[in-house]
Amino acid sequence: MEVLNHRQFYDMLLSGADEIITNQKELNDINVFPVADGDTGNNLAHLMNMIKRESKWSDASTEETLENIKLACMRGSRGNSGMIFSQFIISMCNFLIQHPEVNVDKFIDMCRESVDSAVNAVSVPKEGTVLTVMKSWAESVQEESAKTQSIQSILKQSYPNASAALEKTKTQMEVFRIHNVVDAGAKGFLHFLHGLIDAKPQAVSAQAGSETDTLLEDAPHVMNESDEIPFRYCSEFLVELNGNENIQTLKPDMAEYGDSIVTVGDSGLGKVHLHTNDPASIAEMLVDKGNIVYQKVEDMQRQYESIYQRKASIALVVDSACDIPQEWLDTYQIFMLPLNLEVDQSTYLDKVTLQSDTFYDKLDASSDQPKSSQPSLMSVESLYQQLLQQYDSVLSLHVSQKLSGTFDVCYKASQAVDPERIHVINTCTLSGAFGLIAYEAAKAIDQGSSLAEVKQTVDNFTPKSEILVSVPTLKHMIRGGRVSPLQGKVARWLNMKPIVSIDADGNSLLYGKTFFSNSSQWKMFKQVKAIHEKHGVRDYVVLHAGNPEGAERCEEEIKKITGTEPLYTTSVSPVIGGNAGKGAISIAMLLDEDNLRNEA
């Protein structure tokens, strides 16, 4: 083969992909860098399966096939090695789009440019990794080209040098010397090269990726017990870039926020991977360059704790509509499932890549109501599968079924994964009331209660919960469908500032006693007093939507009524604040007696 055309490249690529998929487990087993998380094989197999699924060969438009391969690389790249491989393949596709047929000289150029592109994708390239092997291979390709004009022969003759470079990685980093292994990503590259060499014409029907690949969609990081985790969140973002923006220009700014930074892509679409403690700041940086269309953030600290520092045999899961302080989530090792929130055409993970301190400026500036949606079925199934590897059972508490599809998705996922060990409960409430119920469940688990006892605790406290919200306007609730347009029109006509609550079934409720009040906060305090006198306020929390001063005033008034301090004061999640509106104040309570909510 003296000339490489698009179809031959396609066949070689799929052959290399198959070789990696076949050796997936081996790559997982030797993965110790940059984090010993045992997922390099999963990540590379995921990428290769995505390429096989999404890049159907087209004789009519070979350039379209190459563009589809690039898009599959952007969507399917995960982890450091996956991102590096992705940039390597994208660069090859770009070269081939410019050169429909590649002779030996151009093949050398393509290899060199693709390796340089992969190296430049990494913020701090390290010797002894896949990049080292790639560079050695590219040098060997150039050397072998002086001996033959056959591209196939060049690939075969350059392979031993690449293999020798791989073996040297055992001694190039201390972590490899300690574990006596080669770099997993570099080993994957050798498998890929082997597939290129052995490539045969691919039948079009052979393009479908492995059906089991979906099980690896969110495979957990599996750290060693001695590992340190300087940056908590493994984060990935896919961005549709504005105009001539280039994702590569962001690397210096991102270096302030974490490590393991890899940026992939060219004009139009870019992808970022990094380990960070502040994924929300990364998201803010990226929306200045375009629209975030996909993101994945894994809490490596919580994953580590579940493996090596598990406090109980029951895993407690809540969604992000549960407003409870992060330190309590950490203390009780609660797993938080973020809802999705779309703002100005960018999609965020609630409380993860979008925090309250920046959300309300976006809300004020946006002409459209933010759109919330439940987590994907695949992400919930993946979380449950991971948890069942470490815990005997899972208790999954969720925002009112009448206000969100999250409960339905989680219930469906539980039935698909293990309905005997996963128990999904509709709390029939949200925000701080949800937080208080979750807190009681967490305490019961911490005290060693059985699963049945913890579920009974939740059942006991759900009818004792209450939440009152003083909103400055019903505009956001109407736009978000939380209050009917008719109720909203009447409220606006009469200048009403009602108190919003939740009824016994989990529906939004406008309290009649405060419906005509010009000072809804004071009416809310009066309502709390009436509830306390009738039912007794056992515990309460204060919440606010970008209004800490109002929350402080609320604390003072409720302390006068109950004689006790709030368990905590915190901001509501963006997904809640998007409906309540900036300035809203909320009081959530657990009562001594059941609250029938029929007195509004």
From TrEMBL:
May bind long-chain fatty acids, such as palmitate, and may play a role in lipid transport or fatty acid metabolism. Residues 7-198 form the DhaL domain. SMART domains: Dak1_2 (SM01121), Dak2 (SM01120). GO terms for molecular function: glycerone kinase activity; lipid binding. Keywords: Lipid-binding. The keyword Transport does not apply. GO terms for biological process: glycerol metabolic process. This is DhaL domain-containing protein.
